[in-house]
Amino acid sequence: MKVIQIDTNQWTEGLAKLEGSYRMFGPAETEGKYPEFKELEKGDVPNLNVSNTHLSAKSVVYPQSEVMFEYTLDEAKEDHHQLREIEKDYSPRAVFGIRPCDAAANLIIQRNFDSKEYRDPYWVDAFESCVFIGHACENPGATCFCTSVGFGPFNEDGLDLLLVESDNGGFLAKVITDKGAVLAKSAGWETETDAAALEPLKEAAEAKIRSKVNTDQLAKQDAKDLFDAPIWEDIGFACLNCGTCTYSCPTCWCFDIQDEVKDKSGIRMRNWDSCMYPLFTLEGSGHNPRPEKHHRIRQRFMHKLKYYVDKYQAGVQCVGCGRCVRLCPVNIDIRTVCEKMNSYKPA
Amino acid sequence: MEYMGIDRDRLHFSWVSSAEASKFITVVKEVTASVKALGPATKFVKDRRQVS
Amino acid sequence: MIGYIDKIREVALKLLNEEKVDMVIGYRQGSLPMMTEPCFVKRPEDVETLIWDSNCRINLAAYLMDRKEKIGIIAKGCDSRNIINHLVENKIKREQLVIIGAPCKGMIDNKAIALQFGQDIDEYQETEDQITVKGGGTEKTFQKVDVLQENCAICNHRNPVVYDELAGDLVEEQTDIDRYEDIRKIEAMDIDEKWNFFEDMLSTCIRCYACRNACPLCYCPTCFVDESKPQWVGKSNDPNDTRTFHFLRAFHCAGRCTDCGACERACPMDIPVRLFTKKLGKDCLDLYGWEAGLDPEQRPPLDTFKPDDPNVGMK
Questions:
Q1: Do A67 and B51 count as a contact with CB atoms less than 8 A apart?
Q2: How many structural domains is chain C composed of?
Q3: Using a CB-CB distance cutoff of 8 angstroms, which residues of chain C are in contact with residue B26?
Q4: Does ipTM surpass 0.90 in this model?
Q5: Which end of chain A has the smaller Cβ count within 10 Å, N or C?
């Protein structure tokens, strides 16, 4: 695929042109707060100076709280007690500055939300409305381990365009899909350049990733052996059972459905849920199949590093962004746990 | 509540014995008058969530 | 303070060897610089994994509730006060515990250091007064007093209040400190300023409940935010629901909070949630002369009635 040169003027002009035809998303920094992905106001430009957003970009497609239906309980109304779909805006979205890890994570979530058997309309429609303009990581962080889990700082999975910073303050943009080509054209970014310039940058960036983890034995391990391994009490002891790891994770997809009623009008919404919470598996009978915290932490790691591996045969359910490692209040580190699972030998 | 930004006059505490009917009347009048004077609450009013 | 570790390991080893306890709860080195991970040690040969430095910021009392074993536990001033809370609230029995007191000169604010250093930190070293971090070919040394956690900088109970062994000599308590400057600043705001201040402060909350779960006071079998019959609070990230969670949680900690700072340390979004609990701590001090977790024999003011209790706001 071709590579385009975008200088700083073309960049600013292009963004202005795109505003008419796309809802624009990108990293935004508010004073005193961490940079996060937001829908940009008209005239705002995505802030591509941030190393990565504090939380993942998954909220662009999959917000923490999302209303699905509304209804009325007023029996005087004809359609009382019937769920009505909420109208949504699935007009094209341009998502600027998503890092390759977060973009690849969407494809992992897609396996769950867009399968042969089931199609989650909210996620799929939002996902399909997006053009992902990635931002290559020339300076990956200390907790980044994307190259260990099958991705990398210049990875193209889940991206339509990949921006690489060039010396003159502009970008080199690799066009990956037709969607990306259309966006580049409507932005007026059309100066083709030599694709060979990217390869050394890519290699240099990959060489900067110092954090490595082994995943090669996970598929061969016996799931029951790992489940019964005497490692979980020790791994889970410090765990607070908060939702930080799951909420900051770009690949965690679980949600919970809630109704909220005010007077006679109600809504049905879904909110991110977390397997770290006791309520996650609490049954109506009062029985909880994962009563202790080490059961719950086992579930999180077994899902990401074993069940997913076995079910999809497409690697682990982790893109190596390192957010859970950095944000965990008690420093439970998926890399350490992964090594323990990978090297586990039953007695 | 005041520390959080809720008007002091929206929240009232009183101890009224079952034998103090006249105090009860006074208190209720005071409460309703002070809340009415403030007008409708604008804080802690939950509207329909924005649909994303 | 860093010299405590030899004594901690020695005591832990003795307790385990003599089978006086089933486990010792302490800290081990985390995978990241300036991080420790709470852990338990059950075998004498594992006591070497225990460490002690200025990054032992998690309150270990949060790991005690309803445990049945005999436990050795390392306790800073704040941890020990929360152990007293547990004794008062019947969450653990005194005879189950062997408390290894750690007179504390404060834990450091790793996030502030990382921010000031400006790049990834690969190495960390500390002496009694200084913190040195290295990374990206440079290094920087901080005076420890300049990078203390805010709650440690204003701490007035550094020594453990209750202990069976001591990991080091008792330290001098800080006396000349103003604990409530930030609270007074908020109290002085007008009503809309206050509302907007907290609206902005809580706007990034993701309802992960790390603050609640890190807190040794939050041990309800089902938290009010998790109740569904009746449902007290909405579950979405609606600002009203988020605020309800934070201020009700603070109320539940009134007269119990020791300002250990675990909630703030745990928050992935760095929201200064202590501004809620500290206000109630200040009120308890002003109204009842009460500081939580100092005496296992005394009932807290909010579960006792005295005829001369102040009538705040009562008509």
A1: yes
A2: 3
A3: none
A4: yes
A5: C
